[in-house]
Amino acid sequence: MTTQFHYPIGTPGVAWGEAERTEWLSRQTRRRSYETDVLGTIGRLRPRFDVVQYGQLDYGPSDTYPLFAIKSRDWRDDLPVVLVTGGVHGYETSGVHGALQFVEQRAADYEGRVNLVVVPCVSPWGYERIHRWNPDANDPNRSFHADSPAQESAALMGLVAPFGDRVLVHIDLHETTDSDESEFRPALSARDGKPYEPGEIPDGFYLVGDSENPQPGFQQAIIEAVAKVTHIAPADANGEIIGSKVVAPGVINYPLRQLHLCAGITDARFTSTTEVYPDSPRASAEQCNAAQVAAVCAGIDFALDHR
Asked: For the Peptidase M14 domain, which residue ranges apply (predicted)?
């Protein structure tokens, strides 16, 4: 699917200043509840898991958000760490609910085998507004670096720092949506004063591996598991998915650390970013959540068998 769109804020070819960012922020409205949807579920998990607050976002009196991680209750220093992150882009719904569903339904399967750390909603402001950015018009998933401009990214890096060198698996749960072309990529071009070049949204699930550490067997194990739940995105006419060469069915690679992406914040041997397509007529919300759970489980299983 390709969509032409002219963004209504700013002057073409001129990067946004404070006035444009303020106008953009004034258009953002709360459309769902982090407290109800996410914190309510986390509350139900407290009897079974350790829940730790690792930070708080402060974006004004009515926009304060506590940030939580869910951890294995019987943490053992001799076990590998598995990190699952969701909602780095708050609008990507199954990233958040898939992470919570994994904890509710499958985390117990790994008790005594790994130390789990699940951060289901890295960007609650974006979750409530169904948006990719934070209120400063920054993309948290391009902000995982020293002196990060994104509170969300800095807080997560602080949480992970004490055990980042002990992580065996990190799976970051995302979606690619039609709104990427109708809203978010045009907004990015307008914000940066660059021409908007329409792209093609792939119909199906795919993975983004690390070009510096691709782990093709790991990625393939995830694809095979998810294919039992929802369809895998085919390559386009150029043999690409979202402009990157397909290196195996449903798999592309990015330089994670160079791009300051969430999946590059640890020294994990096995890393992957999932990309579910919730706008497909062939996929339901339940399938999207289940695909995220299947991806996490397949990734952990493969890593435990090949470490």
From this structure: 30-307
